[in-house]
Give the backbone structure.
Amino acid sequence: MADSNLYQFNPELDLMFERIIDVPREPVWTAWTTPELLKQWFCPLPWLTVECEIDLRPGGIFRTTMQSPEGKRHPGTGCYLEVIPNERLVWTSALEAGFRPAKPIVTKTEKSCDDFAFTAVISLAPHVNGTQYTAHVMHATKEARMQHEAMGFQEGWGKALDQLVAMIKSDQRSVG
Amino acid sequence: MADSNLYQFNPELDLMFERIIDVPREPVWTAWTTPELLKQWFCPLPWLTVECEIDLRPGGIFRTTMQSPEGKRHPGTGCYLEVIPNERLVWTSALEAGFRPAKPIVTKTEKSCDDFAFTAVISLAPHVNGTQYTAHVMHATKEARMQHEAMGFQEGWGKALDQLVAMIKSDQRSVG
């Protein structure tokens, strides 16, 4: 149903991570959509992804629990919005399973209530050297975008992708 | 992609409006998805719907402006999530066009930041007397559900549906 005009990049509100990776897009899709695989790469080490639940359809849940090196658990829940195998995966933290609105994670200050919801659009396109990998992450406000950026968005997504590619290559070696 | 298990009714968080109406479901669908028709019935009089924008696809915008009898305008923006013609229409106020998170409408108090986002699931089923019309409205919190209920949810949806059915019958008479 969606066309390329649906996802508009807004530099004030959005973040973008792009890289060409030298693996085909099919195993990348599988790594994003299989809980036992996602747990192996989703969190940059020494953080771990200790739980993962995937109901791969629009309205289905995408739930993970990340664990800090000190053992503190950080649960996160999202809802898939668009699922086009090997091509595009879209989910948001603004909704829970069945498209129910998520309780906002608001940071109350004297001046305002800030929310940090985001929607992520992962796109995979064939490339002469493998796969063009793009993550477009949308926020409601400039403050949320800046907060996400300051958390180390580029570095975090980069390290996670390194782990994903290494996992695929390791699997290919073990198969070959 | 969705099946009947996707939309779970939670009595603590949700509201439900159900009625059998003596018109076929096709014109009801058309009345929900055509701006010039929606403006004729969507708001219980003497309130008016003075603007309506519809991009009928998952991720597309559903925007209305309601106007009070005193002339005050109340814009509202939502995003379609599921579109099954003549059967089910789902949208949420938690997202904007292109699935971007909406800026939460938070009510800041000394104690908390409350949000009032909702997701609406309009279902139309054939019935021996016409159409079984159901509106399932989901919230993130009990407080949001109670607030929506206190705004006159049942009465408001009932009056709007009266206007919708009257419009369809009027059109049928003018056509016949």
About this structure: DSSP finds four helices and nine strands in chain B.
